[in-house]
C-alpha cells in the first residue's frame, strides 16, 4: 500500500527483455533503496514492483507481461525518470490517499494550461474508468495522488502546484505522452457492494 506522495525521481539505468513476455528493470533511487530489502515493494510510476536486488542505490525488479500490457512501463527508456515511492509504514501520516499500486488503465496528457501559481493539466479518461472519477475525488496519475478539479465524458483535469511539477515526472510530460491511472479503490468496493444488493 502507498500514499501517492512521491519520495524521489529515479532514473532507469537498464531495461532487459526477460523470458516469455517479461522484462527486468533497474532503477537508480538512492533514497528508496536506502533501507530496501529483497522482497520489498516500491512504486514505479504508480506500479507496485518487488525488489529482487539492491546494490549501490540501484534496485532491480521483474516486470510481468501483464504489467507491461496494462501500464506505461513498456514505454520506459534508459536514462528516463520515474516517480518512486516506498510502501507506506503503519503509523505514518497518510499525506495523499490509499494507493494500491495496481494500474487500472493508461491515459494520455491532452492539455496543459499555466495559471498564476499552478498549472492545470488535462488527461484523457478511459471510458471504463469514467464512473470512478468525480470532481474533488482522488486519483493516482503515475503514482501521484491528485485531486480531480473537473471531469467531462472523456477527460479529467487536475491542478499541479510547483512542487508537484518539479518533484515528479508529471512536470515534464508532453502532450500525447502516456500516464498510468489508478482510481480510488473505495469507489470500486462501493460499486461492487451496491451491485450485489437485490431490489
Detailed description of the structure:
A 6-stranded antiparallel beta barrel has the order 1-2-5-4-3-6. It is 12% helix and 42% strand. It contains 3 helices and 12 strands. It has 199 residues and is mostly beta strands. Strand 1 (8-17) and strand 2 (22-28) form a beta hairpin. Lumazine-binding repeats lie at residues 1-97, 98-194.
Low-confidence stretches: none
Number of individual domains: 2
| First-last Cα distance | 35 Å
Tertiary shape: globular
Write down the secondary-structure element order: EEEEEHEEEEEEHEH
Helix content: 10-25%
Largest sheet: 6 strands, antiparallel, barrel
Based on DSSP secondary structure assignment, what is the total number of beta strands?
12
Sequence of strands across the biggest β-sheet: 1-2-5-4-3-6
Query: Which value, in Å, is the CA radius of gyration?
Result: 17 Å
Number of helices: 3
Strand content: 35-45%
**CATH architecture annotation name of the largest domain:** Beta Barrel
User: According to CATH, what is the class of the largest domain?
Assistant: Mainly Beta
Mean of the pLDDT scores?
A: 93
For this structure, the CATH topology of the largest domain is: Elongation Factor Tu (Ef-tu), domain 3
- Class derived from helix and strand content: mainly beta
What are the defining features of this structure?
six-stranded antiparallel barrel, Elongation Factor Tu (Ef-tu), domain 3, 12% helix, 12 strands, 199 residues, ATP_synth_asu-like_sf, Riboflavin_synthase-like_b-brl, Lumazine-bd, repeat, mainly beta
Amino acid at each position: 500500500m502507498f500514499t501517492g506522495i512521491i519520495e524521489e525521481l529515479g532514473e532507469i539505468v537498464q531495461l532487459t527483455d526477460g523470458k516469455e513476455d517479461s522484462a527486468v528493470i533497474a532503477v537508480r533511487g538512492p533514497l528508496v533503496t536506502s533501507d530496501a530489502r529483497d522482497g520489498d515493494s516500491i512504486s514505479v510510476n504508480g506500479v507496485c514492483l518487488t525488489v529482487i536486488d539492491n546494490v549501490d542505490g540501484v534496485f532491480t525488479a521483474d516486470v510481468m507481461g501483464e504489467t507491461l500490457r496494462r501500464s506505461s512501463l513498456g514505454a520506459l527508456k534508459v536514462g528516463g525518470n520515474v516517480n518512486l515511492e516506498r510502501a507506506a509504514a503503519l503509523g505514518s501520516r497518510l499525506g495523499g490517499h490509499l494507493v494500491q499500486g495496481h494500474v487500472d488503465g493508461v491515459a494520455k496528457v491532452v492539455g496543459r494550461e499555466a495559471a498564476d501559481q499552478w498549472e492545470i493539466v488535462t488527461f484523457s479518461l478511459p471510458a471504463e474508468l469514467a464512473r470512478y472519477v468525480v470532481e474533488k475525488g482522488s486519483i493516482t496519475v503515475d503514482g501521484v495522488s491528485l485531486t480531480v478539479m473537473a471531469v467531462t465524458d472523456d477527460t479529467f483535469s487536475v491542478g499541479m502546484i510547483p512542487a508537484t511539477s518539479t518533484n515528479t515526472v508529471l512536470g515534464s510530460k508532453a502532450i500525447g505522452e502516456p500516464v498510468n491511472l489508478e482510481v480510488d479503490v473505495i469507489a470500486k468496493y462501493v460499486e461492487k457492494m451496491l451491485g450485489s444488493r437485490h431490489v
